[in-house]
Write a structure and sequence with these properties.
Layout: H1 6-13, E1 26-32, E2 37-45, E3 51-59, H2 62-75, H3 80-83, H4 88-94, H5 103-120, E4 132-134, E5 139-140, H6 141-151, H7 156-163, H8 173-184, H9 204-224, E6 228-236, E7 239-246, H10 254-269, E8 275-278
Parallel strand pairs: 7-8
Antiparallel strand pairs: 1-2, 2-3, 4-5, 6-7
Helix pairs in contact: 1-2, 2-5, 4-5, 5-7, 6-8, 9-10
């Protein structure tokens, strides 16, 4: 259970400024429903070019809703120049703090605000060339670099907490380490993850233990970062039967997660013939 402040709980249960502005002066959209988090922010300026009204629509966890709600309160009455100075840490501070594992929600709010301001000014964002580093969540090298610089991040785990990058298949971890090293001018060695031996025939007991260990070490921690979980129900030969819990139980990308992440991890660390199915 996440340790949320009373203010986070209040903004989650009673979110401010929910909805969408008719004929907005600025509108920004970030995230993706397929990745589990999405935010749409719109605002209207008054005659003095200050943000007079602002609303949001979000799809995500309690932290995403609370962060979006807090952001709308922070920007009211501000000029565009004042609003664009608001950082994700300002959002977290306004809420009395967020669990580090949920800081990506405040970053998403800051990104949506920047997109809405750029839209209001008639600017096109992301003109520079960029590379998608984390394909699981669609996070670019520029987004990671910005988060690393603004939040003084030094580990892959921290980057995952602030951007979600690296929280899926983990295949992008080496690139994330390279970006961190580049930002801070450091030379880091990529640690090699110790993997169970593959290629030999496993007994039923060995297979079961290896599946359980892989679920606990490689799979469940990433799911729990967004309030989800997975329960092992049964193992029938190469069939692994599971039940989705928490946010995973109603996530629109659950099928993708099962096949492209859970099943792929078990194939990598156990045997290639494994299939994953959801309990009926």
């Amino acid at each position: 259970m996440w340790d949320y402040t009373e203010k986070v709980k209040d903004h989650f249960v009673n979110p401010r400024n929910v909805g969408e502005i008719d004929d907005p002066d600025g509108i920004g959209e970030v995230g993706s429903l397929a990745c589990g988090d999405a935010l749409r922010l719109s605002f209207k300026l008054d005659e003095d070019r200050r943000i007079n009204d602002v609303k949001f629509k979000t799809f995500g966890c309690a932290s995403a809703i609370a962060s979006s709600s807090a952001l709308t309160e922070l920007v009211k009455g501000k000029t565009l120049e004042q609003a664009e100075k608001i950082t994700n840490n300002d959002i977290a501070k306004y809420l009395g703090g967020l669990p580090e594992e949920k800081m990506h929600c405040s970053v998403m709010g800051r990104e949506a605000l920047a997109a809405a301001i750029a839209n209001c000014r008639g600017e096109e964002r992301e003109k520079e060339e960029f590379e998608i580093v984390c394909n699981c969540f669609g996070i670019s090298d520029r987004e990671i670099e910005r988060a690393v610089k603004e939040n003084n991040l030094h580990t892959v785990e921290q980057v995952t907490h602030y951007t979600k990058a690296g929280g899926g298949c983990e295949g992008c971890h080496p690139k994330i380490r390279d970006i961190i090293a580049k930002v801070w001018g450091e030379k880091e060695e990529t640690p090699v993850l110790a993997k169970p031996a593959k290629g030999k025939k496993l007994t039923n007991i060995q297979r079961m233990r290896l599946i359980e260990e892989t679920l606990e070490r490689e799979i469940k921690p990433a799911l729990r970062q967004d309030g989800g979980d997975l329960e092992l129900i049964d193992i029938e030969g190469s069939r692994v039967i599971v039940a989705l819990r928490g946010t995973c139980s109603f996530c629109p990308s659950a099928d993708f997660t099962l096949k492209q992440y859970v099943e792929a991890k078990l194939k990598e660390f156990v045997t290639d013939d494994i299939t994953v199915e959801v309990e009926e």
